[in-house]
């Protein structure tokens, strides 16, 4: 696989932290937040990453050098919606060529590419995202992620949201053991309160629970 180091694109931020969500919660990681997202969730906590003309224009070589300087071996490529970025393919290809473990956080609205991503974290959006269903539920993309053994992480804000998750699970034959429910919230008290019924729903339906460690520990501040 050739590494296209002359590639470039806009980046919102790069930082080292712990993975706060999903099946690798707690894992030391470098986060690369690619700029641009056209999904538009009402509760999005990274709205600064929406505009594809904002952020900083970075060339791939320079970006890789920064990641090397703070690398932990696990790299989380996130957004925005990273699959919309022109930097996505060359970045993932370059990271894998040099041996990094790569996770991708995506809304699952674009079909995954045939890239050697170690872990697809697909956060399909429910009705409470405020995004029309035609824009957030893309059957071809979802089936392609199922075929790539993706994890499906659902943000849930009220118990009724779990019914919607079950409908999607049945409609797309999502493997129950690869579904995670994560409480919505940007304050630790609301997260903990919602965690109680989310915990019970996970037990009832055979789903996993996902924390939001970054909110529990640090609150809503931007992680840079
Ligand atoms: S898909 Fe992600 S980045 Fe885009 S609006 Fe929704 S939560 Fe925000």
Distinct compounds present: iron/sulfur cluster
Number of helices: 7
Share in β-strands:
15-25%
Kindly report the average pLDDT value.
94
When the domains are counted, the total is: 1
Question: In angstroms, what is the radius of gyration?
Answer: 17 Å
Number of strands: 9
CATH fold topology = TIM Barrel
- Identify the CATH homologous superfamily: Aldolase class I
CATH architecture assignment: Alpha-Beta Barrel
Share in helix: 25-40%
**CA-to-CA gap between the ends?**
32 Å
- The chain-level structural class is alpha/beta
Biggest β-sheet, characterized?
9 strands, mixed
In spatial order, strands of the major sheet run 3-1-2-4-5-6-7-8-9
* Spans where pLDDT lies below 50 across 5 or more residues: none
What labels would you give this structure?
TIM Barrel; 9 strands; binds iron/sulfur cluster; 22% strand; 224 residues
